[in-house]
Amino acid sequence: MSTSELAVSYAALILADDGLEVTPDKLNSLIKAANIEDVESIWTTLFAKALEGKDVKEMLLNVGSGGGAAAAPTGGAGPAATEAPAEAAKEEKKEEEKEESDEDMGFGLFD
């Protein structure tokens, strides 16, 4: 990451921590106050648009959550629930067989 990107990232985190809206003007004023030079205005605009209307603190707290997990099948599931994994395993085997068939051509990458 470049110095410009880091400066804008940290400025956005400072604004979010203070509960302020992240705008290009506020980002620029923080960057200038930190005596960081050569930050192009595209970075402040890009970060402000990306974070517009989003709760940065909430985003940081949910970094590892990755969204909702799929629910486990219940005990009342019929045979359709067990057929899907078996079909997926068959498809994986077919794909592996296709990859292996390429090796039987009699030449290799380093021959």
Q: In summary, what is this structure?
A:
By secondary structure, the chain is mainly alpha-helical.
Largest sheet: none
Strand content: under 5%
Mean pLDDT: 75
Overall spatial form? elongated
Count the beta strands.
0
Structural class: mainly alpha
Q: H/E series, N to C? A: HHHHH
Show unreliable segments. Answer: none
Over the alpha carbons, how many angstroms does the gyration radius reach?
A: 26 Å
- The N- and C-terminal alpha carbons lie at a distance of 41 Å
Structural topology:
Elements: H1 3-17, H2 24-33, H3 41-51, H4 56-61, H5 79-103
Give a quick set of tags describing it.
111 residues; mainly alpha
Structural write-up:
It is a single chain. Helices cover 60% and strands 0% of the residues. It is mainly α.
